[in-house]
Amino acid sequence: MHSERAPLALKIAAFAGLAFLHLPIVLIFVYAFTTEDRSYQWPPPGLTLKWFGVTWNRPDVWASLGLSLKVASVSTVIAIVLGTLCAAAVSRAKFFGRESISLLVILPIALPGIITGISLRSAFNLGDIPFSTLTIVLGHATFCIVVVYNNAVARFRRLSGSLVEASADLGANSFQTFRHVILPNISTALLAGGMLAFALSFDEVIVTTFTAGQQQTLPIWMLEELVRPRQRPVTNVVAMVVVLVTFLPILGAYYLTRGGTETAGVGK
Amino acid sequence: MSYAVEFDEVSRSFGAVRAVDNVSIAIEEGTFFAMLGPSGSGKTTCLRLISGFERPNAGHVRIFGENSENLPPNRRPVNTVFQDYALFPHLNVRDNVAYGLMVQGVDKRSRHGRADEMLSLVKLGDYGDRKPAQLSGGQRQRVALARALVNKPRVLLLDEPLGALDLKLREAMQDELKALQKQLGITFVFVTHDQGEALSMADRVAVFNDGRIVQAGSPEDIYQRPRTRFVADFVGSANVLSPALSQSAGSAKAWHSLRPESMELAKAESGRLAGTVASIRYIGPVKRVTVDLGGDQLTVAVPAERTVPEPGTRVGLNWSDASIHRMEDE
């Protein structure tokens, strides 16, 4: 079956699909080198590298990039801690309402971002919490937790329960069991979940618009830039950087979690 | 005689299910003790009460005379060979075996030395650098054994450790386990649903049913003198005689058990009971002749070299008074 060659029509369809998905991104890359800075002309009237220099010297780019990195890192750390604990509770213990809790944890990612955004904004207002980096982080953590949770819970399910018992049986206390048995078996899942969470947070717009005050994360900054027809290719340069920054972790997560379908610790 | 493990009217329920129901046992130090029973009979829960993964709802579990209620699993002088072996997949065989020493803070050089000693004890001296996934089922089982023994437990618990092995390997491991227990002199508590395994390896056997111990004794006791119909049925192919049949054979009106090898065939008119031969099966050194008594069927074991009547022939059945055994009503 695998030795048969794909028919021509299928090949064309596949390439068309790929082109549809990826040509717009290539376009963004091309416009980063255009000499025209007010409108997007095709084909670009000329090619130049000067926008890289211009971007480098724009303090607003650096400020929003810094903020985005900070927000993404902090929400990822929060997500790893809370998501792992949540996954451990749901997959290890049996208690009333376990399935509902599992659903409630996943809900934020299914919920439209705009709902999450509005509800967080009114909650912050009610609590008299001023908008700051912290409020952006909290907003991002809601969906970052889900990503880590989903990865961790799958791995916990594959981790045979008797491994934990074997560890205790051999004299390990809870901390030693976590350090020497659980952590080594879930670490790649946590790393993958963390990378995905980081990438999600880094390009988030909707929730951020509702939970940020005067601050701009990188995606918000880009949105603002598009409205103003000034030094437009700077946005494209930044977009290129964003693609690279988010693509690498996702690629890493993909390689870390592929394969390994056997259940850890079941020795038959 | 001191006891390694004592159960004092222990019960353990899961919701409405009484998994262990008022069980009392005393396991002498240095014995090979088998807990035998069908699945769901409470034998594994009893094992987990000793290892500390379950706590009794009522009664006491004493380990070497001490109440164990407040001792967590990691502070009990017992170690377990798990049914699925539960080897740590991220550690190599040597580190798996050395795990118990590692968590005690033994330095790397001496714990690896001890681990290698244990591995040669279970004849896996050259396998220290492999990962568990690279081993066969029988080898994993030995690693699990070495890992459980490295802490020098005073009681070793084995939860159906041979269940996943094929027949030939299982028989070889039975001999090895028995020899190992003799060599180490520690108490082995072994859970199994295989009566052959229990009877051939253990010094003492407890037969479980529905969370209770139906009978405890030496393998010979259990085999020759089953206390109830359940034991007779579960432990082996003993003939069970109903009260009516027993009476017509000249015994008291009660349930009786009779081993196939204790009976012999006779002429129809000179037997205690008479019937027709229904079938003959050849099983190695014996022929098992099933005799139909008009509803009841009894099996007689006849040495294979002897000739037996064809199916359909009327035969009589005889036995000595000493070989028929009266059971309790249940």
Automatic annotation (TrEMBL), chain A:
Membrane-related topology note: Multi-pass membrane protein
SUPFAM superfamilies per the UniProt record, alphabetical: MetI-like
Main location per the UniProt record: membrane
Matches recorded under Pfam families: BPD_transp_1 (PF00528)
This protein's UniProt keywords: Cell membrane, Membrane, Transmembrane, Transmembrane helix, Transport
UniProt-listed Gene3D superfamilies: MetI-like
UniProt keyword Repeat, yes or no: no
Localization terms from the record: Cell membrane
Family note: Belongs to the binding-protein-dependent transport system permease family. CysTW subfamily.
Protein name, entry field: ABC transporter permease
TrEMBL record, chain B:
Any Pfam family matching the protein: TOBE_2
Transport among keywords: yes
Protein name: ABC transporter ATP-binding protein
Domain of life: Bacteria
SUPFAM superfamilies per record: MOP-like (SSF50331), P-loop containing nucleoside triphosphate hydrolases (SSF52540)
Domain ABC transporter span(s) in chain numbering: 5-235
Organism: Albidovulum salinarum
InterPro entries: AAA+_ATPase, ABC_SmlMolc_Importer, ABC_transporter-like_ATP-bd, ABC_transporter-like_CS, Mo/tungstate-bd_C_term_dom, P-loop_NTPase, Transp-assoc_OB_typ2
